[in-house]
Structures are given as structure tokens and as C-alpha cells.
Amino acid sequence: MEAIIRSVLPMLDHDLMNDLTSELDRIGVKTDSDLQYVTLDDLKDFLSPIDCRKLIQFFKSRGNENVLVTQSSNCPNSSAFDVPFHGPSPVTSIPVPVENAAWLSDFQIPWGKMTPNLRTCLAQGKRPEASDRRHMVRVIVDSIREVCLNPTKRQCAEIAESIIQKYPNSFSDKTEEGELIGCGYYSLLCQLKTRVEHLNRNNTMARLRKPKRTGDEVDDTQPSTSKSAKLDSYGCVNWNPTDLPEGETCESLEMMRKEMLSLFSKEGRRAAERSRVEELMRTTFIAQRHCINARPPPSITDLQAKWPFLFFKRFLCAHFEKLTGIDLDLRLRESLATKGERILYFFKNLNSKRGKEVSKVLKDIDREGRDVDPGLAAVLLMMAHFKEKEESLFLLADVTTTPADAETMLSLGSTPRLIMLGDSILQSKEWMLAIEGKVLFPAIDLPFVSSAFAVLFGCYYVLNIEYQVEAATTLEFIQRFIVRINPDNSKCSSKFQVSKRSGKMVQRRNSGLNPHVSTFIKEFMDFSWQNC
């Protein structure tokens, strides 16, 4: 096994190699053929994402078509329903019906059966009414079920993609700026698949999915995922650079890092004003990324000890811009002001459709008057709409609170939190940011609420922090709608969460794009089209 891994990763550290081979042995890899069943999750705690992909690709290329059914005795808690539906498994005890996909190549969408209003919208490149869109979904699914009772999600995705390609202006998921959200057809895919599952709810012979569990509890003995687990690039353009700056070596970059440490120890925060520090931070970007992306990942305290200037707003935002290609401070300042006002207008015009949580926030906004920042108000409304608690992102403290007071008196949590100084979150005029129980950005570094949001959101990307599940939907909304970073995958991979209905730990369904975010953006865009 070691020889196989060495052929792909010849420079792998000896200790890491021992840990990796021990893990492969633990999960049941006994022969060369077993390697084809290794997944990214099996390797991610030991290797960088790129090295994981190299190994996975190599393992699959060595695999053969003979599935071994040998390791079930080593997995007493496993069952046929634990097998992911998208890939093979070495443990197979129940045959899974395979749909005949030949129908898909000949399938034609019956556009002639659609409503006249929808056909008019398509001809004019407009977005159809929600009722017309739902009617279209019903017609398409009825037509599909004439040739296939239960199309797979992949097959539904192909049909949704073909619709988006033909009528992008009418159906695609996109921002107001015209940028695709994720794959661009996720909301339509969800509607198609949900309709299929609804029609098959009592037809067990046509069902491909595993039966629903009774009750929403999960085993308390299951380990919970880390709230600040490290992720891959997720929409970045320069996540793990490999080319050193011209004329520089690893040794020269390390000397630059030590020079910055010396300046910080002598001058403290004043050293950040030096142009030399700005130049050094720009040049050492590759070294900062390699330090952040290290395996195992460093703690925030270790990062701050090695790169103290990274925890200044100007340098964090500069790092974010090089990482993603986006001027975060500028984009948030503009988007929170303009889109914030329109989100407020949207919720005020929902009338009976809005929930009691949203109504409460709207009353608080009206009571505060004109001094309320529209961006902050919009974020609080989104948290209420998604039924996420304010304390999962914001902590309220007295205006006299110092960083030391906050660390002593507040429960700061491990993931980023904004400490709002004032009588209420809406009235706050000063802000601090804390991570892993420590205030890292004092109020002096955050002069505006948009600056506070820039640091809050920037930390998730720059420091490779996963969205905490308690605020994951709101953070993904900010990412996709406000900052406009729209990869296909999700930045919250937690497998469990606390049920908002029962308060118990339940299994969390992960998907490429948060369906609540996708649905809201679609409704907001439809509202904008009808009220522009």
C-alpha cells in the first residue's frame, strides 16, 4: 500500500504515510482492488485537498469491475441504506433497481401543453409567474412518468439544465447582476425532483430512496463535526498558490515573516501603518496560504502568532481580494446599502406571508426610526426569515465593554461572532470581532458596520473556517447574494444539527446549494421583476 501511495505522492512525510496507511487498514482496505472504494472523506484529515484528489483518481484508475463483498463483518453498524446512492460500495446486501436511462435522449418537453401566460413570458424572455412555473413542473413530470416512473436526480438535473439553456432569462438562478447562482438550475431541479417524490409517496415499488426514519432523533453517540472544520477552495481563484514571487525563495519569505514579527513586537498596532509592512504582506501571500492550508490546520492563536498583521482589517481584506478576486470592503459597502433597502421593501410588502419572527424584527426596525443601517437590518431580517438565532452571529454588549471584558463575560464561541456595542443590535455604533473565544479585531479597526461585516465574512474565507450550522443559511445568503461568490458546493458540511422543531440533534441533509437560499433568491427576483 505504501508503495502505491509513494508512486503518486513521493514527497509525503513519513509520519503522515504511517497515519494514512493505518487509516486505510482501519476502514477495511485489504487488497489493491479495495482502493477504488476509498473516498475523499477517508483521506481529508491526512492530506491536502489536491493530494486527496490525486490519490482518489489514481485509486479509481487501478480499480476493476469486480465489486468485493467481504468487509461487512467489520462494520457492525452499517446497512445497505448507508451506501451513498452515487457510487459503488464494497458492502451490498440488497439489490438496487437501476432505471433505464435510454428514455432521456429521446425525451421532449411538451411546451405546447403549457399555459398561454408562460409561453408569452418565454417568447419575451421574462420570468413567469410562480403559478405558471408550478404548472410547467407538473406537466413536465407527468410527461416524464409516462416513460419513467421515478427519474433519478441526475436525470432531472439534465432536464432542468436543458430548460435553462433554452430559456436562461426565464428560469435560471442568478443574481441581479446576471451572475449564475451555483449551477444556475438548482431551484428548478428541486421542483422537478420534489414533484416526482410527491407522486411516488405511496408507490414503494417505484421508490429509489431509502425509507424515512420514524422520529427525528439520531444516535447521540455519533461524533459531531467541528464547527470550524477546514474546507477546500470553495469559489476562490488563488486558494493554494504554487509559484513563488519572482526572485524569492522559501527562505527569503521566512525572513520577511520574521521581519514583520520584529516590527510588530517593537511598535504594536502602529507598525501596520508602515508601507514596508504592506509590501511584505503582499509578497508573502503564498507563505500565508500554505500556513493556513497546512495539515493539520493551525489554530487561530497560532496563526496570529505567526502572522499578526493578517488580523488587521486592511490586510485581511487585501488577502481576501487576492484569494477571490473581489474587493470585499467595497462590494459589501455598496451591496448592503442598495440591496438592504430593497430587502426591507420586500419583507414589508409580504403582508400575511411573513412569519412572526420577521414581523418582530420589522417592528423593531420601525421603532428605531431612520437611524437604522439598512444592511444590518436586512441581515437581521434574513436570519429571522431562515429561523436562525441572532446570537449565532451577533452578541450584544454594553458600549463600555473592552476586548478583555468581552473575553471574560461573554460566551464567544469558536466561530466568528460580531460583538455589537450598544443598547440593541440595531442601535450599535461600534463593533468587535471574536474567534475561538478571543477578540481579534477591536472596535478601532471597524469604523463602519460594512467594515464589521467585511471582517466577519472575510474570516471564513481567509482562515478556511466552515460556516457554523446555526447561521449557515444566512451566511450562504450573504455569500451568494451580497458578495456574489457562487460555487456549486456548500461551505457547511456538518452532518448533524439541532432540530428547530424538536430541539433534538437530527441528521442534516447536505446539498450543493442551500434550498432555502435558492428559494428566497428566486422569490426575491420574481418580486423585483413584478415591481420594477
Give a summary of the structure in a few sentences.
It contains 22 helices and six strands. With 532 residues, it is mostly helical.
Overview of this structure, please?
The chain is mainly α and 532 residues long. Among the domains are: 2-82, no CATH class; 102-199, no CATH class; 344-531, no CATH class. It has 22 helices and 6 strands. The protein has helices at 2-8, 14-26, 40-43, 49-62, 102-106, 116-124, 130-144, 153-166, 168-171, 186-199, 250-267, 275-283, 285-292, 300-306, 313-324, 328-348, 356-368, 374-385, 403-409, 449-462, 472-483, 515-531; strands at 394-397, 417-421, 430-435, 438-441, 496-498, 505-507. α7 packs across α10, α8 (153-166) crosses α10 and α16 crosses α18. The radius of gyration is 26 Å and the shape is globular.
Helices, strands, pairings?
Elements: H1 2-8, H2 14-26, H3 40-43, H4 49-62, H5 102-106, H6 116-124, H7 130-144, H8 153-166, H9 168-171, H10 186-199, H11 250-267, H12 275-283, H13 285-292, H14 300-306, H15 313-324, H16 328-348, H17 356-368, H18 374-385, E1 394-397, H19 403-409, E2 417-421, E3 430-435, E4 438-441, H20 449-462, H21 472-483, E5 496-498, E6 505-507, H22 515-531
Parallel strand pairs: 1-2
Antiparallel strand pairs: 2-3, 3-4, 5-6
